[in-house]
Design goal:
This protein is α/β, with parallel strands linked by helices. The chain contains 14 helices and 12 strands. The N terminus is likely disordered.
Length: 474
């Protein structure tokens, strides 16, 4: 029996707002406390993120003096903290070079033949059109609720600025997604956003949602999304529908009410974007996409901030323009949080590695694979699509489900092996990887596990291990 297949008990038990879940430990060494399905934050979101500081990974060390707290909607950097390129909401250019990262944050990056503006430039453009902008911390969230209110979500995954500015507030054993996200906020890089949205992806992000508004003085609205963990049944759907209704009320306060039929249109946009991503991934898996790893992920990751209608147009244009035989190379499946370090994709292209499928939290786990679940009342449709996303460590999915999913990805793409990019200090992923690698090897699928961190340069040891792995493949 795999670790996450162990009985979890009745989710309606007397666990209070947060129930202990066996086998998961917070970055601080304590047992993870996750929102409960029925006892967790309801329509008003009364979870740990709205109370005092939660225990676990993010402990506010050396609290700043009162004059150091933000007095307005934006905080002045403390101690010469790291500044994002152009102060933009962040994600590194997946193409990797220093010049590319600067372009992605302050100018434009290109996804193959389809150019994409930087997040900051794009966010300012959206505001000039009368839309609001939300800085969204990873990973899964109901984007349709934001689109319906003319809010453009801009996701904060891997901004170019490092995590130095966050070191005074975070323990050392916190992943670089959280480190960089907080550093971006401290440096004023989210200033373009009208409000912030935090998803309870893991303990570290959950506690970041407490740290920013309650201890660092963020004055803009901070909204929270608590998806159910470990189940996809009717109880999970009922909880999620109720929670989406509560989140909708808070969005009404932060961004205004959605117009008549706006949510239905937003749901249709989400369906179209998911279909475009499915078509693109299908073409790559079948060997019919003439695109490098760099170009592919530049195109896919632009969905992290593009307005959905524009994202669909760009994805479809990219697939049309790149229709043709895939580049030669060793076909592999990659799994992890992000295709990082930023320079890795170019190095893989140079080594003759062709990523034919991925299980990245930021990419391949972000859209429903195959047929959508049956539609219902509009909030039920949104809830069902969230619950139908691929199995994920951050969703508490059984390891057996993740193992089956990875095996299907490898089979449908004729991959010769699976590479795990294990982000340092990402505990949800680290909990699953040993069992996943062992399970895949028992099915005859070669695996390589690499510990990675964000940054531009790829360590020589990482490249050496990839080259050695390629030599062992049948």
């Amino acid at each position: 029996m795999l670790p996450r297949d162990l009985p979890r008990g009745d989710p309606r038990g007397a666990g209070g707002a947060h129930a202990l879940q066996a086998g998961h430990r917070g970055a601080g060494g304590g047992i993870s406390r996750r929102p409960h399905l029925s006892g967790g934050p309801g329509r008003r979101g009364t979870g740990a993120a709205q109370g005092g500081p939660a225990s676990g990974a993010l402990q506010h060390r050396n609290p700043p003096a009162r004059e150091g707290l933000r007095q307005g909607p934006h905080r002045t950097p403390r101690g010469g903290g790291a500044k994002g390129h152009g102060g933009g909401i962040g994600g590194e250019d997946p193409r990797g070079s220093q010049g590319g990262r600067e372009a992605f944050a302050g100018g434009a990056a290109r996804g193959g033949d389809v150019s994409t503006p930087s997040r900051r430039v794009y966010a300012l453009e959206q505001k000039s059109r009368g839309r609001k902008v939300a800085a969204v911390f990873p990973a899964r969230y109901p984007a349709e609720l934001l689109w319906a209110r003319e809010v453009c979500p801009v996701e904060v995954w891997d901004p170019p600025a490092g995590g130095q500015a966050a070191q005074a507030h975070l323990q050392a054993n916190v992943c670089s997604v959280v480190q960089r996200g907080l550093s971006l906020w401290l440096s004023g890089g989210t200033e373009v956003a009208d409000f912030l949205l935090f998803s309870h992806t893991c303990d570290s992000l959950q506690n970041l949602s407490t740290l920013v508004p309650h201890l660092l003085g963020e004055k803009r609205p901070c909204l929270f999304f608590y998806p159910p963990k470990g189940r996809r049944d009717d109880l999970a759907e009922r909880y999620l529908v109720d929670h989406l209704a509560g989140l909708s009320e808070r969005l009404d306060e932060a961004a205004g009410r959605a117009g008549e039929g706006a949510l239905e249109r937003a749901v249709a946009w989400g369906e179209a974007r998911g279909r475009a991503l499915n078509d693109l991934y299908d073409a790559r898996a079948a060997g019919g996409l003439a695109a490098s790893n760099e170009d592919f992920y530049a195109s896919v990751r632009a969905c992290e901030y593009l307005w959905p209608e524009e994202a669909v147009q760009r994805l479809e244009a990219f697939r049309r323009e790149r229709s043709g035989p895939s580049p030669p190379g060793v076909p592999l499946v990659f799994s992890g949080v992000l295709p990082q370090p930023a320079g890795l994709l170019a190095r893989l292209d140079g080594l003759g590695v062709r990523i034919v499928e991925d299980d990245f939290l930021a990419c391949g786990r972000r859209f429903v694979r195959g047929a959508l679940p049956p539609a219902g009342e509009v909030l039920s449709t949104v809830a069902r699509r969230l619950l139908a996303l691929p199995p994920c460590s951050t969703a508490g999915s059984p390891v057996s489900d993740r193992l089956d999913f990875l095996a299907r990805l490898a089979g449908r793409s004729s991959a010769r092996g699976v590479v795990f990019l294990s982000l340092k200090f990402c505990e949800p992923e680290l909990f699953d990887v040993p069992a996943l690698a062992e399970g895949l090897r028992s099915r005859g699928v070669p695996c390589l596990v690499l510990e990675v961190e964000m940054g531009g340069e790829v360590p020589a040891q990482t490249l050496t291990r990839i080259e050695a792995f390629l030599e062992t493949l049948p």
